[in-house]
Amino acid sequence: MTIRFEVQDMSCGHCVSAITRAVKEVDAEAEVKIDLASHRVEVQPRQADAAALQAAISEAGYTPVPLPA
Fold first, then answer.
1. What is the C-alpha to C-alpha distance for residues 67 and 17, in angstroms, rounded to an integer?
2. Where are the strands (E) in 1-69, listed by range?
3. Predicted TM-score of the model (pTM)
4. Which domain holds residue 14?
């Protein structure tokens, strides 16, 4: 299952690193794909659910908006 978010306030490589780190803190084995140009974050979680991932990205200082599967 892939969980997708749009993160409009992600604007640079540092943002990509911060979001990846935040996701990995709640699910170390998650696969994270980030497209900076389209502001999309895709996560293939191993153990975390969408709410936990969204909370982690929010706590890192970003505004993730869930996208339909």
1. 21
2. 3-6, 31-35, 40-44, 65-67
3. 0.95
4. 3-67
